[in-house]
Amino acid sequence: MSWTLFKANIKTNRVIWIIMTVIFVFYFAIMVSMFDPAGAEAMEDMLSMMPEAMVKALGMDTMGTTLLTFLNGYMYGFLVLLFPMVISIVVNHRLMASHVDKGSMAYLLATPNSRIRIARTQALFSVASATAFFFVATILGILISQSMFPGELEVGKFILVNFYALLMYFAIGGIGFFASSIADESKTSLGLGMGLPIAFLVLQMLGGVGEDFSWVGNLSMYALFDPNKLVAGESFAWLGMAAFVVIALTLYTAGIVIFNKRDLHV
Fold first, then answer.
1. Is the pTM of this model over 0.85?
2. Rounded to 5, what percent of the chain is helix, strand, coil?
3. How far is CA 98 from CA 83, 125, 142, in A?
4. Which residues in the chain land under pLDDT 70?
5. For residue 75, what are the contacts with CB-CB under 8 A and spacing of at least 6?
6. DSSP label of 264
7. Where are the alpha helices (DSSP H) in 96-234?
8. CB–CB of 36/70 below 8 Å?
9. Residues 6+ apart with CB under 8 A from 50
């Protein structure tokens, strides 16, 4: 691995990473502040005033009675699919395709680093950026929850839910890294790296609209992410984790191998 390149990646991507992390934690604090076990019935009444299809599409149809199940519904049902996704799309595009498109890849390849070493460094940074996001989000999430509702959060299960989400983002990052590694132009990298995760999100939302469209949601990779089933101890969640790991390993490895062998016009 090239530490020089890794540190350059930190400098290039730190602004978008900090902005999206701050926004996510800010929303998390708002969601925690809205938790009121005694007011669950009032919250359900408020949601009943909204269009049923929209509530289901946003994954907010399951109202938890504990702080963890409440967060599973409102943070990890929809919002977790948005903010980290922005980081993943931007970072993975910048790691490979942006260098090729701008011509700066020629300078990287002119250094003593081999192609395989450059690709491995970029892949490691992609994984590290997602890991750092969920590490910070988990720590701050615990601190915020404990400060507002001491003892209410099931910390062990909350950490496991975030680990589940992190594995999902390894798979999403794999899509972005693979697209970035095979693309000669930014439009191709962004088309695949951004288009597929957003397409999965749209399918997920359509699947939540109603029973008639539930099969559509199963076409989405996000159908493998169900934190409520994880909390309930169902094997589905563990199978989902395994699937995310396989997807991520396959795509990151394929991206590195293809980049190492491809004919680059730099």
1. yes
2. 80, 0, 20
3. 21, 15, 36
4. 37-64, 265-266
5. 27, 28, 31
6. -
7. 97-102, 105-109, 115-148, 155-182, 186-207, 214-217, 227-231
8. no
9. none
Residues in the chain: 266
Residue pLDDT, tens place only, 148-198: 999 889 999 999 999 999 999 999 999 999 999 998 888 888 889 899 999
Look at the block and give the residue holding tokens 């400098």.
11
End-to-end CA distance of the chain: 22
Q: How far apart are CA 13 and CA 15, in angstroms?
A: 6
Token pair 């700066």 is at which residue? Answer: 104
Q: How far apart are alpha carbons 221 and 202 in whole angstroms? A: 11
Residue position matching structure tokens 């997920």? 204
Tokens encoding 44: 């359900």
Q: What is the pLDDT of residue 49?
A: 67
Instruction: Express each pLDDT in 61-85 by its tens digit.
Output: 666 678 898 888 888 888 888 888 8
